[in-house]
Amino acid sequence: MKLGVNIDHVAVLREARKVNDPDILNALYVACANGADQITIHLREDRRHIKDIDAKNIMQLSQLPVNLECSINREILDIISELKPHRATLVPEKREEVTTEGGLDVFTYKDEIAYAIEQLHDSIIPVSLFVDPTIEAMEASKDLGAEMVELHTGSFANIFAMLNSSLPHSNHSIKELELPRYELQSRLEKSIQELKDAATHAKKLGLGVAAGHGLNYHNVSYMMDIKEIIELNIGQSIIARSIFSGLADAVKEMKKLTTRK
Questions:
Q1: C-alpha–C-alpha distance, residues 148 and 140, integer Å
Q2: Are strands 231-234 and 208-212 parallel, antiparallel or unpaired?
């Protein structure tokens, strides 16, 4: 299992005070030195965290492959084509969202996604699509010409958190998941099966399979049981853990949890 460490949240902290502290490049070097297999960043249209100069510097200085997440916005695609990351992952994006909500709609925006993939391929950039774990999305991703899919694990992670953490007792409780524990358990089992089925089908189609969103030190073990998944992209939980343990140890611990015996 490859571990992609998403360092966006270091930039989130930096932007809170509008100073270059913490330095995103320090996070890059620490992640590279302590077990990351890949660096993941998201260059959003609103530039709320990673800036163009960050993406350029990371591409130039990273000792590891860089997975650059982006929308299908034409301006952004032009930047990605020029930066030439090791992989581009196309994700949905809304200006008002706190974080990415759901997978890319590979049906409604089929033509726009096809154009984006063609442009990236013209720049010799492999493409992954960040999609919901459904059979239909796997087949559409294959038809569109992507080399890889990243399964959106947000639904799984939300259910797991409502069942196994203090989230229901916080201000961030997910209202639609304030359900009896037996119902949450049933939904958790269903979401895990959906991830397994999607991963199996994607591999049969010849797609590489990654997973990400909401994965943390408590729930990542479930992904390890899905042998078709070869890569995880994890950010917020690693950066959150680093506040207490330091980034080096946070990356090392996650790498240990994502190493198959």
A1: 12
A2: parallel
Could you write out the DSSP letters of every residue in 7-70? -HHHHHHHHHHTSS-S-HHHHHHHHHHTT-SEEEEE--TT-SSS-HHHHHHHHHH-SS-EEEEE
Calpha distance 229→127 (Å, rounded): 16
Active-site annotation, residues: 42, 69, 213
Rg, Å, the chain Cα set: 18
**Residue 241 C-alpha from the chain's centroid:** 17
Task: Say if residues 61 and 28 touch (Cβ distance below 8 Å).
Answer: yes
Taken as a whole, the chain contains a residue count of 261
Check residue 47 and give left, alpha or beta (phi > 0: left; psi -120 to 50: alpha): left
List the chain residues with pLDDT less than 70: 95-101
Which region holds residue 145: left if phi is over 0, alpha if psi is between -120 and 50, else beta? left
Secondary structure element (H or E) that encloses residue 212, with its range: strand 208-212
Which tens digits make up the pLDDT trace of 119-153? 999 999 999 999 999 999 999 999 999 999 999 99
